[in-house]
Write a structure and sequence with these properties.
- There is one protein chain.
- This protein has 9 helices and 14 strands.
- The protein has 266 residues and is of the alpha/beta class.
- It has one domain: 4-Layer Sandwich (Metallo-beta-lactamase, Chain A), CATH 3.60.15.
- The chain has a 6-stranded mixed beta sheet with strand order 1-2-3-4-5-6, covered by helices on one side.
- β1 and β2 form a beta hairpin.
- The radius of gyration is 18 Å and the shape is globular.
Length: 266
Amino acid sequence: MLKVEPIPAFQDNYIWAIHDGRCAAVVDPGEAAPVERFLAQKGLALGAIVITHHHGDHQGGVAELLAAHPRTPSGEAMPVLGPVRERIGGRTQALREGDVVTLAEPALTLRVLDVPGHTAGHIAYVGDLGEAGTAVFCGDTLFASGCGRLFEGTPAQMLASLDKLAALPSDTRVYCAHEYTRSNVRFARAVEPGNAALAAWEDRVAALREAGEPTLPTTIGHERMVNPFLRSREPAVRDAVAAQGGSTDSDAAAFGALRGWKDNFR
C-alpha cells in the first residue's frame, strides 16, 4: 500500500514522499537534507525523484540526492522525472502532457498534465495510489485556496491550467508544494465573505495550524467550493473583482485582475 507523507523544507515548502514502506519517490526536493533525514527515520530507500518545475526550491536538492543515491535499490540508474520545456538538473525523463510514467520502486504510475502559468513549462502528475486514492502533485500551480504567481505565464494560461485540474474527479487529493493556506484563506474571505464553506474551512485551517498540522492534502471538490481562483467565473467573485476596479470583460481578464488583487493583498 502506498502512503504519502510531507517532508517540511525551508520555511513553508513541502517535499512529498510517496512510499510503500520500503522505497520512496520524492516530489520537488528543493533541498536534500530533510529528505535524507526522512529516509533514515523511516528506514526507506530512495527510488525516484519527481520534479514539477525548475524553481530552485523544487529542484535544488537533486544533485546532492543523486550523489548520495546514484542508483535505485535494484541497481538501476536513479530516475529523475521533469518537464521537457524546463531545465532540470540530472533529469533522465523529459515529460509533457499525455506521457505516462511507470516507476518500479515504489510501484507507481503517474500521468502527466501540462499546467503552465507559474512557469512556462510547469507540469503536474496524477497518480492512482490504491487505498490512498487518486492524487495530483501540482507544485506551485494550484494551492489550497489559492494558486501560484504568474512568473512566466499569462492569466489565460493559468486559467486553462486550473480548469484542467478542476476537471479531475472531486475526490482527487491535492498535494501542492507550500503551506500558504492560512494567508490564501484570508484573501479568499475578502473575495467571498458570504461563502459558508469557506468560513468553515477558515476555522479548520486555524485549528490545524495551531496544532502544528499541515492543511494538506485537500481535494479537488473542496477547492471548487473555497478557492477563488477556481471560482473566478462565479458571480460573487466577478462582482468582487469589479468592485476592486478590475476588468471582467473576459474570463482571462477577470482571472488576471483577481490574481493581481492577490499579488497586492495585505
